Amino acid sequence: MNFTTLKIDKQQPILIVTLNRPQVKNAINIEMMRELRQLWQGIHTNPDEWRCVILTGSENAFCAGADLKERKDMTLRVWKAQHVVLEQAMLAMVDCPIPIIAAVNGAAYGGGLELALACDFIYAAKTAVFAQSEVKIGIMPAALGTQHLPRACGLRRAKELSFTADSFSASEGYDWGIVNKVCEPTELMETVLLTANKICQNAPLAVRQAKKSLNVSQHLDIKSGYSFELEAYNCLLPTKDREEGIQAFNDKRKPEFVGE
């Protein structure tokens, strides 16, 4: 994982990914799009190496959205070709089998908010500011923003935020269901790591299957969703981790899960 726009910190089994273009508030350029695609595809093809990913931003910003200076005078053909890379990166992120936590340490505007929303949940510094701001520059959310935002805060709130492009605070995001927890800026990463470690202590195959089942719940009726849930559940019954979990409970000890 040798990247120029992403900083990678391996704290096995936790992978910390930092958007690392601080000079432009970690705005997304074509190189970052390519590297995010490579990152998520790499995790998807080798999920056993990690049990949780934390996505954050360098210095005092999470991500300011697309790099508009790079897009100035860009031809329509190049713009569309560039966006295909972003689309592939976002879909690969959605397909990531292990939990992703967003640690939003500062501004998350436009595509930055969409990156945070594509994570499984968001912890934010109390100083973080968010906006679904694309309509201010003549475009609209196109990194799953119109899909993830209403699922987080409801359709009417998502429409208000997307139509007005108004910014909102971390505490407002918490009240609306977008943010799971608001932290003091100096305590954000410590709090996120605490949660990530809790996830990592659980059976990794069980966590992955739960993630898959929870994700499909958003677009299936309850009986179809239950059928998927049972299929995911039955896949866990022959695993070593299921046997270890039951044995450890009866032995009154902490289980040692191996992901098998």
Describe this structure in words.
The structure is a single chain. This protein has 260 residues and is of the alpha/beta class. The protein folds into two domains: 6-200, 2-enoyl-CoA Hydratase, Chain A, domain 1 (Alpha-Beta Complex), CATH 3.90.226.10; 202-251, Orthogonal Bundle (Lyase 2-enoyl-coa Hydratase, Chain  A, domain 2). The protein is 48% helix and 17% strand. The strands form two sheets. The protein has a six-stranded mixed beta sheet, with helices on both faces. Strands 4-6-8-9 form a four-stranded mixed beta sheet. Strand 1 (6-11) and strand 2 (14-19) form a beta hairpin. The longest helix has 19 residues, at 76-94. The mean pLDDT is 96.
Distance between the termini: 25 Å
Low-confidence stretches: none
Shape: globular
- The CATH homologous superfamily of the largest domain is named 2-enoyl-CoA Hydratase, Chain A, domain 1
> What's the tally of helices?
11
Radius of gyration: 19 Å
Question: Would you tell me the structural class of the helices and strands?
Answer: alpha/beta
Q: What's the total count of β strands?
A: 10
Fill in the CATH topology of the largest domain: 2-enoyl-CoA Hydratase, Chain A, domain 1
Reported for the largest beta sheet, the result is: 6 strands, mixed
How many discrete structural domains? Answer: 2
Query: Helix coverage percent of residues?
Result: 40-55%
Share of β-strand residues: 15-25%
Produce a short descriptive summary.
With 260 residues, the chain is of the alpha/beta class. The protein has helices at 30-45, 68-71, 76-94, 111-118, 145-153, 155-164, 170-175, 188-201, 204-216, 222-236, 240-251; strands at 6-11, 14-19, 52-57, 61-63, 100-104, 107-109, 121-125, 129-131, 167-169, 181-183.
